Amino acid sequence: MAQETNIVAEPRTVHGSSAARRLRRSGLVPAVLATTKGETELLQLNAHDFEREVARHSNPQFIAHIACGGSVRTALVRELQRNGITGRIAHADFGEIDPDKKLHVHIQIQLLGDPVGVRSENGVLEQHVRSIVVSCLPKDAIETLPVDVSGLHKGDDIKVKDLALDAEKFTVVGETELSVCGVSDATAEVAAAPAPAPAADAAAPAAAPAAAPAADAKKAPAKK
User: Is residue 20 part of a domain?
Assistant: First the structure.
């Protein structure tokens, strides 16, 4: 990984939504750790310290060393749930990993540079893939992959298979022919935009109401 992350946790003895709310009010984050033995451990983390560690990473999925109960386990942050209003972390989901076994990790793609096709060829840079999944050993995992796009001309693109990944360390999981980014023709982009809908025709005059049957000119004489 780009940097070591150490997290101090404590065993959690309570569970359930009501207990989780009480923990959050007391400045703790409820968490779970799925162990390599197939068990699930309940943990609680100091909310302030954990938020600070997460903020150091550009990728929400990262590897951390969790110290709890006198032992240290290496785990992957699998999911962070946040409060929809405050944005604070409400729950953390970890998965213990074996340092000697490969795992699947997400790597974010970071585009760097100003393409030639944008500077001088009336092109526009488009990014189609934001992250890729690779298989690698935990020690080789990275969070972000910088991609230099400064040499791209209009019509050029970079595919997943073109990314500068060490083939001895990383194996891409998924389609490698996907275009990560490319420079397209800005003029063509404008031409391809849907034309505005034509103005609605003036409303046709409402049909005149059907005329009521004309009354008889003379009332038929009453029978005697």
Answer: yes
Q: Which residues of the chain have pLDDT under 70?
A: 1-3, 188-224
Q: What pLDDT is recorded for position 3?
A: 61
The secondary element (H helix, E strand) that includes residue 192 is helix 186-192
Sheet containing 179-185: order of strands? 123-127, 179-185, 157-159
CATH number at residue 147: 2.170.120.20
Looking at the DSSP assignment, which residues form a beta bridge with residue 183? 125
* Domain limits for position 141: 104-192
Q: What is the pLDDT of residue 61?
A: 85
Residues 56 and 126 grouped into a single domain: no
Three state DSSP letters for 109-161: EEEECCCHHHHCCCEEEEECCCEEEEEECHHHCCCEEEEECCCCCCCCEEEHH
Structural contact between residues 145 and 119, judged by C-beta atoms closer than 8 angstroms: no
Angle (CA) 17-21-24 rounded to 5° is: 135
Phi, psi for residue 42 in degrees, rounded to 5: -95, 130
Number of domains comprising the chain: 2
Domain boundary among 44, 71, 97: 97
Please give the Cα distance from 81 to 76 (Å, whole number): 15
* Lookup result for tokens 């690779």: 134
Residue 21: what are its φ and ψ, rounded to 5°?
Answer: -65, -40
Task: Please state, in angstroms and rounded to a whole number, the distance separating the CA atoms of residues 146 and 178.
Answer: 17
Q: Does 53 lie in the same domain as 79? A: yes
